[in-house]
Design a protein that fits this description.
162 residues, alpha+beta, Nucleoside Triphosphate Pyrophosphohydrolase, five-stranded mixed beta sheet, 22% helix
Length: 162
């Protein structure tokens, strides 16, 4: 699916975007769960802030996440989607939450994550901004899936920050 978005971006915009392949999937050896998954994402906390993307189609916030490609583990889906949407290479850790719809949220450790992040070319069709926020300072109505907000807020308050 990500390839389709990239191709659409190149065609619709009339120019070719310099796309870099995601770095190899890096999973914490102690947390490798080998789960297959339909959709997965990364929970990346730094101090009192959470890394989120702002979705282009509705302006709502969410963690970097997306659907698995054929044969891809859920942890590698979280890794790849975080690279494609936020441009951040991560080490994927333990499963933090399995939501009722099957979405898997993993604790991820950024290998690099500057204060200011630009949307990578691979994310331009889906993402309008990559930002660090304090989720206690936004409301559920600003979240893409507002029903997830209380659960994400609880995780944010429980999880240590890097």
């Amino acid at each position: 699916m990500a390839f389709v978005y990239r191709l659409a971006a190149m065609t619709a915009l009339g120019w070719v975007l310099p796309l870099s392949a995601a770095p190899p999937c890096l999973v914490d050896a102690g947390a490798n769960d080998g789960r297959a998954g339909m959709a997965a994402g990364c929970f990346i906390k730094r101090g009192d802030r959470l890394l989120v993307v702002k979705h282009r189609h509705n302006g709502k916030l969410g963690v970097p996440a997306g659907f698995s490609e054929s044969g891809e583990s859920a942890q590698c889906t979280a890794h790849r989607e975080t690279w494609e949407e936020a441009g951040v290479a991560v080490e994927v850790g333990q499963l933090l939450k399995r939501f009722g719809n099957g979405f898997l949220l993993y604790r991820c450790r950024p290998l690099t994550a500057p204060e200011r992040l630009d949307v990578p070319p691979s994310g331009l069709m889906e993402v309008s901004a990559v930002v660090w926020i304090n989720p206690t300072q936004v409301g559920a109505n600003e979240w893409r899936f507002s029903w997830q907000y209380p659960l994400l807020l609880k995780l944010f308050q429980q999880e240590p920050g890097d």
